[in-house]
Write the C-alpha cells for this entry.
Amino acid sequence: MSDFYEFDETDAFTTGALGQPGQRTFVIQVRADSSRFTMKCEKQQVAALSQYIRQLLADAPDVRERPMDEMLQLSSPMDVNFTIGTVGIAYDPRNDRMVIQIEELVPFDENEEPIMDAEVTRIRIQITRGQAVAFCDHADEVVAAGRPPCIFCGRPMNIDGHMCPRMN
C-alpha cells in the first residue's frame, strides 16, 4: 500500500538548496493550506524539471500573473519527507494547469535490488502556468548559484580552488 497526496490548489511550488556550494542538498517543496511536503532531489532533477516545464509551456499563451517572490522561498521547518524517484509532468488544457506527479525513490535491499513491495509516497500537484514559469525562473537561479566553473577545464571550483588537469 502507498500513500497518495493530491494538491489541487497549490499555494507554493518551489525549490531551493541547503548548505554551501559543493555540498548543497537540493529540495523541492509544495505548500497548500496547512500542508507542506519537502522532497530531497538531485540538482540535475531540478534542472530537468525546469527545462521540461518550459518545453510544455512553449506553445501556451504568455503568463500575466505570477506568484510573489516570497512564495518561492522555502518554508521552515525543513523536514524532508522523502527522496524523489520518478517525476511525471503534463499540461491539463481543460483546467489550464500543469500537473506534476512525484513518486518517492524505491528503496533498495542489502543486495542493491529494488524492494518492489515497499510502500512509496506519491504526490500529484496542480499548479498554474504562472506558478510554473516562476518555478522555472527560480530553479534556474538556484541551480546556477553553485560553484563557479574553472575557466580552463570547466569543472566546478571550490572556494580554495581545485586541481585543474589543464594547469599541469
In short: The two ends are 56 Å apart (CA to CA). The mean pLDDT is 88.
